[in-house]
Amino acid sequence: MTDFLDRCRALTGANHVLTAADDMAPYLTDWRGRTTGNALAVIRPADANEVAAIVKLCADARVPVVPQGGNTGLVAGSVPDRSGTAVVLSLKRLNRIRAIDPLNNTITVDAGCILEEVQNAATAAGRLFPLSLAAEGSCTIGGNLATNAGGTAVLRYGNMRELCLGLEVVTPQGEKWDGLRGLRKDNTGYDLRDLYIGAEGTLGIITGAVLKLFPQPKACLTALAALRTQDDAVALLASAQALCGAALTGFELMSQFSLALVTKHFPDMRLPFTEEHPQYALLEISDSESEEHATATLEALMSEAMERDLVTDAVVASSIAQSRALWNLREHITLAQAAEGKHIKHDVSIPISDIGRFIGETDNLLAQRFPGCRMLVFGHLGDGNLHYNVSAPEGMNDAQFIEQQEAVNRVVHDSVHRFAGSISAEHGLGELKRDEIRRYKSDTELRLMGVIKQALDPLGLMNPGKVL
Ligand code: FAD
Ligand code: MLT
Ligand code: ZN
């Protein structure tokens, strides 16, 4: 292996092949701090050609490769196993915005670009890149593509698959495929781009992408509605869609418990209501007319909903700072729950019409089986995507509760399956849900996935142990 590492050093320069334990440590533990692996080395190539050359060396030496972007993934997909035989390939030095074409409404970027930097580059060109999620200051476009990330604007703009027109990929054999096309129509055979998106690094390494841009809305306005039940939130969503149409860009659900943790762990943050309410919905509209029109639309929606007794209280933000403060509450839920302690995470999607019934039934089943356990439910209601997390009963040690993870997963995921939902709406499978998915996908679907993996990566070197 010394020979292999020397060849890698010759390609990237010695300081970009990390082998000391302290240097490698940040790359070996996942964001949640739940999974720590080991690696032969962490390699940090500078561009797509270096990635191709390194992957070719790995193929020749039969060294497994774990691609890593910002390491913010939530399913332990970006860290190696404990064997110490793999290299972590960090893509973060691939950080160039390659081109912006405002007429074609596209931006071409390296895979290691941080999401927020791509949003900023689009804004500077008078355009919008709409993918938005709480980890946007550290996650990368490559990771967003590899997980087909969702976030808070899917309702209007779609998830990462819908935002990508072209890809550049290094195959497991170290060949570079240039599919960087900025076309909205291209029916020339199998869609390789869509195969790599959402593959979580198991089929190849994404090194570049052409992404869609959109016109900037004239005004973006946020409202927070207080509600009694999740069913009321679903009814409010239907009203908002009927009134606002495509202008409704975000509709997030947050339970009282999730916001109580935010205000507990981030005492500077406050809810704009004097009383507590069981549920909250955060709405965003992106208006193509004006700020006044946006305000009038949201105010009309909220007063109608209050007249129908769907909404018990509401605020419409009157400034960008107020909008930001409302979004901050939403975006700090994950951090607050992490600060509170260990918990069991689920990222599920359900047909929107069944959301209320799904939560009611699953809450009951869990309460019977694990008395006192606390459900923290929030998420992208507009997409039917809930983060249905379960915490230990008050007073019980977190670690003791986590031992029951498999049994808790069984209750939640079986319930999702009964409602014809998905056990991973936006985070992917990684290592965390690799075995779980075998229970819910058909043999045919699993076999076809295996055939694709075998055809593209016959040596099984791309992110082994993840997804399949
Ligand atoms: P990593 O974590 O580094 O990697 C994720 C997966 O992609 C791994 O399997 C890795 O091997 C693979 N990969 C990374 N780069 C490449 C590449 N260039 N080529 C091939 N494979 C690659 N996700 C959502 O969908 N919606 C949310 O709202 C959301 N909110 C979040 C909020 C917080 C606070 C946090 C911590 C995470 C959140 N996530 C969310 C999850 C995470 O941010 C996303 O999955 C993100 O897309 C991962 O990007 P990354 O660069 O950090 O990827
Ligand atoms: C979110 O919507 O905030 C994320 O997907 C993160 C999470 O599920 O914790
Ligand atoms: Zn989410």
UniProtKB/TrEMBL annotation:
GO MF, one example: FAD binding
Lineage: Bacteria, Pseudomonadati, Pseudomonadota, Betaproteobacteria, Burkholderiales
InterPro entries: FAD-bd_oxidored_4_C, FAD-bd_PCMH, FAD-bd_PCMH-like_sf, FAD-bd_PCMH_sub1, FAD-bd_PCMH_sub2, FAD-linked_Oxase-like_C, FAD-oxidored/transferase_4, Oxid_FAD_bind_N
Stored PROSITE patterns: FAD_PCMH
Keywords linked to the UniProt accession: FAD, Flavoprotein
Residues of the FAD-binding PCMH-type domain: 35-216
Pfam annotation, one family: FAD-oxidase_C
Cofactor: FAD
Protein's GO biological process: respiratory electron transport chain
Protein name: Hydroxyacid dehydrogenase
Family the entry assigns: Belongs to the FAD-binding oxidoreductase/transferase type 4 family.
